[in-house]
Amino acid sequence: MTGWNADNAAGPTGQGAVTLVEGSSFCISQANGDILPAHPHGVFYEDTRILSLWSLAINGRPLEPLGAWTPAPYQGTHIGRAAQADGGADSPLTVERKRELGTGIQECITIHNYGLEPAFCELMLSVDADFADLFEVKDGRVRRQWEQIRRPQGDSLRIDALWQGTKKNILVHAPGAEAGTEGLLFRTTIPAHAEWSVRVSAVPVAGDTESLAPLLHAPLVTVSPQEQRLKAWDAGIPSTRLSNPSVDKTLLRSHQDLGALRIVDPAHPDRMVVAAGAPWFMALFGRDSLLASIMIVPLDPTLALGTLQTLADRQGTAVDPLTEEQPGRILHEVRLGVGTGLALGGKSAYYGTADATPLFVTLLGEASRWGLASADIATLAPHADRALDWIRDYGDRDGDGFVEYERLNDQGLINQG
Predict the structure, then answer these.
(1) 266 and 355 in one domain?
(2) In whole angstroms, how far apart are CA 179 and each of 147, 156, 357, 391, 399?
(3) Does a structural domain hold residue 3?
(4) Is the residue at 13 inside a domain?
(5) How many domains does the chain have?
(6) Residues 171 and 320 in one domain
(7) Radius of gyration of the chain from Cα atoms?
């Protein structure tokens, strides 16, 4: 369990780094929009870095960052300036990179020429995917070296990778690009006081041609699934107007952050679950997801219901010293990366926590008090009974009325409460 015994505080992402989140996917980049493998940056999908290099150069020179902001948790805008070919300080070319995160990323690159003369631009978008495990990136120790095959074809570049029988793939595409083994190349001349744009996408793929899921909305006039979920979240939360602007801003930010931390149970797309935190903990946790649900249940019991249902589906049924699973126990964390699967014998859930199981019972009680449907309570009640059995039979090892803990193997978490 790489990184689980290390300091769990996320490592520094670098000054000016911009983080986007959408479900369990996230993206960390520099202020100019570039993703460089020397930093803990990248696009992450299912706890794997599917993009480790995403760097734009114009006429062989990187962009000078001018500003960056995030209009939504899953959207980022980066403004940069293209350097002069002769090394001069002033440049008439500015570059706008509008990025949207989903199952991969989509980016609209626009170059504005504010000069009096046409400007020739050679754009090189360098691309790489090391498919490193999230914990490898977080800890700064990427160990697995995947065998890569790069297949440029027309305006697309596909990267296939293999490591000990496990396959990963990603497809990068842009209309009009010249694809090469290192990335995508564009050549254009932009008239004076004009602009040029291109839309680039990078998505994980399964099999030979099919993408895993639609990345984003294709037509610009449609509303993306990300925006639909965000609007539904905004509509369901009571609005507040306070005389103290500082408190008002804090409540608004809390509402926005909770909305950004929602992830979807893949087996049940209608269920929303609260992740533990951005960027490194955009996953289902026991303690963190339950505590956040307890705090928000007066305003939105649906998050509590989704969290309870998802954790109940993965409630322990057997004794497994490797994953620390025990009958009735509520899990600590779910991870989908290759490294975690190896550490847990091919499984994705780790159960080494003392407090998630009591918190499960607590949240069910709170949700009942705040109006969760009686049918839902009745469905979850047997899971609460099994959780109470775990507290008595496994949590309280010496029968003194208190829950104790001790990890069951030397790879597990030392501190489980």
Answers:
(1) yes
(2) 20, 6, 52, 58, 66
(3) no
(4) no
(5) 2
(6) no
(7) 24
- Range of weakest confidence among 186-190, 235-239, 276-280, 321-325: 235-239
Measured in whole angstroms, the distance separating CA 44 from the mean position of its chain's CA atoms is 6
Give the residue numbers spanning the domain of 365: 237-395
DSSP state string for 284-339: -BSHHHHHHHHHHTTT-HHHHHHHHHHHHHT---S-BTTTTB-TTPPPSEE--SHH
- The answer to whether residues 63 and 206 belong to one domain is yes
Tell me the average pLDDT of the chain.
85
DSSP run (H or E) holding 105: strand 104-113
Mean pLDDT of all residues in 401-417: 88
Indicate if 174 and 273 belong to the same structural domain: no
pLDDT range class, residue 220, cuts 50, 70, 90: very low
Report the C-alpha gap between 403 and 18 in whole angstroms.
Answer: 41
Give pLDDT tens digits for 101-152: 988 999 999 999 999 999 999 999 999 998 988 888 887 777 778 888 999 9
Residue 224 belongs to a domain: no
Position 83, amino acid = A
pTM recorded for the entire structure:
0.83
Residue 341 lies in a domain: yes
